[in-house]
Amino acid sequence: MAEALQQLVLTALDTNGTILDTRELVLPGQTKPATSSEDQIVILGALNSLLSREMISYETHEVISHDLTPEGQQIAREGSHEARVWDKLPEKGKGAPITPVELKGLVGDETAKVGQGRAFKNGWIGKEGNGLVKLVTEISDTTKDDIQEIASTGTLKSGEKVLADLRKRKLIVQRKGQWFTVNKGPHFSTSTAKPETDLTADMLTSGAWKTATFKKYNFDAEGVPPSGGALHPLLKVREEIRNIFLEMGFAEMPTSSFVESGFWCFDALFVPQQHPARDLQDTFYLSDPQKALSPEPEYYKRVSTVHEHGGFGSIGYRAPWSHEESSKLLLRTHTTASSAHMLYKLAAKCRGPENDDGFRPAKLFSIDRVFRNETMDATHLAEFHQVEGVVADRGLTLADLIGFMRAFFKKMGIDKVRFKPAYNPYTEPSLEIFAFHPMLNKWVEIGNSGMFRPEMLEPMGFPKDVRVHGWGLSLERPTMIRYGINNIRTLVGHKVPIDNIENSPAVMF
Ligand code: PHE
């Protein structure tokens, strides 16, 4: 039916150029024009389908139309009550008059009651004795005619007064209806073949694309929400920071080993073996296995010597060296442990011939997880991520470090930075980094930095004129600021709402 109706509309348009009034169409399988509102609803379906393919355009017209009530339908079929009463009576003087009781038996209570009154009023019937007879030999049943006209056209030519009367008599009800004017659309064709959704290789080779109708692309369609994974805000910020480092020519360090030894996490960095950071209260130690493999013996010896007795211009800590402390296994407390491994590898290449000591400048970075035995609160967890940059070159100065950091933080959108002298066991000088927080309207500490000490670099084997500087910050801090999070537990851990993760926007510095 839908297909046939669409075809009918297209054919009508093709022959006449336009359809002025859809009420004049004769629907497939019918004999009379589609004047009823049901018909127009069916037509509207077909029009909308053709419109979506831009084969037609149409205009809607509103009409008030009328439907028959069940009583109205009966009148359309059998005539008005008064006509039915008249019909049953004998002509005056030509037979026995019919009593009202008999009439009820012939036409039913309702028709007898209503019909008698109206037939009397019309002068169609009269009394004879205590019975009823016809007074006229012919009647014209205008009610039936009017009702039939309404049934086929939805309205009456004779006008609103009669309609109002029929409404009052509950023979018809008023209803809003629609009809349409139809014109050809930009993709008019007499074929209702389904529009193509894709341009295929077959269509190109056969040339079918030339005549094909294509379905219009719906740019407003919402699309299917992906049910796959979503990146965590920390990972998004990590990616941004990683890109900043890569842009600045840094290479990423391998940071996969969460477990380090006391040697690599502290000793190699010239952190005294008695330093409070190495306490159980601050560092997680492993119970199984407890001991690390020994580092390369000669390097190990140089490190232990510089701690115990000094060297390379340093007096050392002059405290007894503990191999046990050095070989403890722990969860790394900073990614500078990974930097130490990488710097040692870099220094190991510095064994070239006389005129080339083998040193090559390096810019390295890492962003990974570290662990500290912290009391947890809204801003501290026992594990977090560190961002760390390390630069090694001959003759670097503190100004180079400051310059690097300014450039780096500027790329993160932080223009105002300040540096404050600080203490780190492995750097001298050391600087704390402060940034101006426009929302808090104050300076906040964002990181830590410094020039690595000769006591750390020279035992590794770096030439004396090679300077290495570095800086570090947490990944959580800028992430929380970026996403306006004030409790770290809504960012990391089992209390994180999954839809927060799924809906968190991408971040760009
Ligand atoms: N490791 C330092 C920290 O945990 C950061 C840092 C890295 C400082 C490199 C100086 C040089 O805060």
TrEMBL record:
| Gene Ontology CC: one annotated term | phenylalanine-tRNA ligase complex
| Cofactor dependence | Mg(2+)
- Record bears the keyword Aminoacyl-tRNA synthetase: yes
Class of this enzyme? ligase
Pfam families (UniProt xref): PheRS_DBD3 (PF18553), tRNA-synt_2d (PF01409)
* PROSITE patterns, per database record: AA_TRNA_LIGASE_II (PS50862)
> What does the record give under GO molecular function?
ATP binding; metal ion binding; phenylalanine-tRNA ligase activity; tRNA binding
* Compartments where found: Cytoplasm
Chief place of localization: cytoplasm
Domain Aminoacyl-transfer RNA synthetases class-II family profile per the UniProt entry, residue ranges: 236-497
Q: Which domain of life is it from?
A: Eukaryota
Q: Which UniProt keywords apply?
A: Aminoacyl-tRNA synthetase, ATP-binding, Cytoplasm, Ligase, Magnesium, Metal-binding, Nucleotide-binding, Protein biosynthesis
In short, the EC number is: 6.1.1.20
Q: Which GO terms describe its biological process?
A: phenylalanyl-tRNA aminoacylation
Per the record, the similarity remark reads:
Belongs to the class-II aminoacyl-tRNA synthetase family. Phe-tRNA synthetase alpha subunit type 2 subfamily.
What protein is this chain from?
Probable phenylalanine--tRNA ligase alpha subunit
